[in-house]
Structure formats: structure tokens, C-alpha cells
Amino acid sequence: MAFTGTEQGGDSREERDSSTGSHPLYVSTVRTGLVFGPGRSMKERRPCQKSSLKSGMDPSQSVKCKIVVVGDSQCGKTALLHVFAKDCFPESYVPTVFENYTASFEIETQRIELSLWDTSGSPYYDNVRPLSYPDSDAVLICFDISRPETLDSVLKKWKGEIQEFCPNTKMLLVGCKSDLRTDLGTLVELSNHRQTPVSYDQGSNMAKQISAPYIECSAQQSENSVRDIFHVATLACINKNSKNAKRSKTVRANKRISHMPSRPDLAAVSTDLRKDKAKSCSVM
Asked: Which NCBIfam families match (predicted)?
């Protein structure tokens, strides 16, 4: 899988991952208003860089999907998007209001164009955040595995908000910062508050409660886990769009059938013709 990403103000980068197959993955990103620290090194990870989309790809033949990312503040939303788009982990935290990324890649012969919306989890933006929901194909509900209270927010806040503003949109539950589940410092800090990191089973059970798939990732340590999330989300979008397309065709077909003139009763027409002939006969 070839991977490229673009962003204003960066350099070029290209990487091939032979373990994930031969289908290319092309990603371009656009963001404004963010200030990131230098990229944190990971296994074979390169600094934040820039390259262009592969030429020759016809946008008119692509499938467009909109994915909105929500969750409590500092739960890992922006890092998730930044690692997927730029292959580098942001060192410093800068609060997000709204940021938009675009990504393009191919699944077999189908080109996919993603519009990725990063939102603020702060209560101060509760009245503004719903502006990002219209026309969304999937919503990623993120929580921080090292902060159990962020998992509680999934039921207390995020499920209800999504059902109110985009009830027919596919939801995916994402456990972020999975590397902190075994981090000694995190374990000590949580134990001081008589808490433990969110287990996989706890996340999975929550996903069942909201009828959503569950997937975990570590944006800091596993780039592949991040890619898996957007692969699953993209497939959910494609399935949703395919069902909508089939439903739309069925509705149009039903409308055409309902407007077709009814077929005449041939037997009745034949009887009327015989009656008319009988009336026109004269007796000689």
C-alpha cells in the first residue's frame, strides 16, 4: 500500500507497506489554524512532510464520504486525524474548534474521497458543533482509554447528540491511547483515584449498547491501528451509500410504475365493439 499525504507548508513523503497489500492509499490534507510541535519519532516514522496526490485520478468517478470525529476534549481526536493524514504525532496540545481534512485513497478499483471533520469536545461549543453533522456518512465517537470518565460520556452525551442531529448516520466507537493501558505512570495516577484504564471488554460492551463497531488505536505507537479505523469507517460509508442508492432506485421505479397508464381490459373493449356493430346493422 503506497501512502502519500499533503498539507500546506510541509515537505514530501512516500512510504510503501508491503504487509497491507498492493492497493494504493493516497491522502491529502488541508488544515488551518493549528500549531503543532515537531513530529514524535515512532517505529520507522518520518517527520511531518508533504507530497501531492497522484495525478490522473478522475474526481467525477470517486465516492465521497464525510466522517465527523467527536469525543471529550483531549481524548485523542486530533492526534488520530493528524497521524492518519501526516504520519506524525503532534507533540503539543492545541484546542480544536473546527478543523477539516481531506483524504483520497483507493479500495480495489474504487476511488474514495474522505472529508474528515475534527470537532471540539468542549461544552462551550455544544451549540456550534451540530453544524458539522449535516450530510455526514459516519461519526467516530472517541474516548480516552486512560480516562474512564470519557467512556461514560459516550452514553451521557455523544450518543444522544448524534441521534438528535444525524439519527441515520453510522456510528463507530474508537478507544484512543491504547498504549496507556499498560503505562506505569498512568496506572499509578489512576490507582491514586481508585480507577483503572478502560479494558477492551468495557469498550466492547459500550459499543454494543450504542449498536456500533468497536476498534482501538494508539496514534503515538501504531500507525497501522489508525489506518484500520479509517478503513472500517470508509467501508461503513460505502455500505451506507450503496444502500441509499438502491433505495433511491427503488423509489424512482415505484414512481414510474405509479404514473403508467393502466392496461385496458381487452375483453371489455371487444364486447363494446360487438355491441356497436350490432346497433349499426339494418334489416332488409
From this structure: small_GTP (TIGR00231)
